[in-house]
Amino acid sequence: MEGGLLLRKICGQNECSKYQMCLEQEWECDPCSKYCEKLSDNYNYTICEQHCQDYIHDFIKQYVSENQLKDVYDLINTLKTILFSMIALNVLAFISLFVVLFVLWVYERKQTMKENRTENIQLESISTEQDPDNDIHVLHDEAAISEVTIIMENSPNVSEIDKEMEEFVEYNNLTVSSVVVHKSDSKPVLDPVID
């Protein structure tokens, strides 16, 4: 049968292998590429179509589909590269945003602590002494003090206060409350500030 795909290519006493055709005049097998390749000197599309269907199917048609697939594979690889680049950029942007927010948070926290320390607690300009009734009074110099957190309760165990405010909170017999120190008074007056 000519012009179709054959399971076996019988050529006289021989059997031609895949991608070969039988030359009936000499009963010899000849490669199909001789007749099917356009650049070959013996190119003959009629002989190729009649006797070399397997060669056409596997080589000529495959080259066309392979070229088409190559373009598709190139496009897929390009899209993969773009996708991975976008993911990497998004991760980098997220990490950068997180770092910036963290730095801003640390800066704001330091600023808040610094403001609290300078506005509410100015211990360097305050001295304390104790009167005979064991009430703690606040004396101040010429520094402008608006509001100070200080100990405001009787305490027989404390004779003088020269520690920072954080250390005072550890005493069980003391409580912490807010007081306002008036600079204009000749004697220090403690007015509790009610929150």
How would you sum up this structure, described in words?
The structure is a single chain. The chain is of the alpha+beta class and 195 residues long. Among the domains are: 9-55, no CATH class; 123-192, no CATH class. The protein contains 4 helices and 9 strands. It has helices spanning 33-36, 45-51, 53-120, 165-168, and strands at 9-11, 14-16, 20-23, 28-31, 126-130, 136-140, 148-151, 176-181, 190-192. The protein is rod-shaped and about 135 Å long. The chain crosses the membrane at residues 82-107. Keywords: Membrane, Transmembrane, Transmembrane helix.
With strands numbered from the N-terminus, the spatial order across the biggest sheet is 7-8-9
Q: Shape, please?
A: rod-shaped
Number of helices: 4
Tell me what portion of residues adopts beta-strand conformation. Answer: 15-25%
C-alpha-based Rg, rounded: 49 Å
The main sheet comes to: 3 strands, antiparallel
Helix content: 40-55%
What's the end-to-end separation, in Å?
107 Å
Low-pLDDT stretches are 140-191
Keywords: Membrane, Transmembrane, Transmembrane helix
Transmembrane segments: 82-107
Characteristics of this structure?
195 residues; alpha+beta; 3-stranded antiparallel sheet; two-stranded antiparallel sheet; 4 helices; membrane; transmembrane helix; transmembrane
Helices and strands in order:
Elements: E1 9-11, E2 14-16, E3 20-23, E4 28-31, H1 33-36, H2 45-51, H3 53-120, E5 126-130, E6 136-140, E7 148-151, H4 165-168, E8 176-181, E9 190-192
Antiparallel strand pairs: 1-2, 3-4, 5-6, 7-8, 8-9
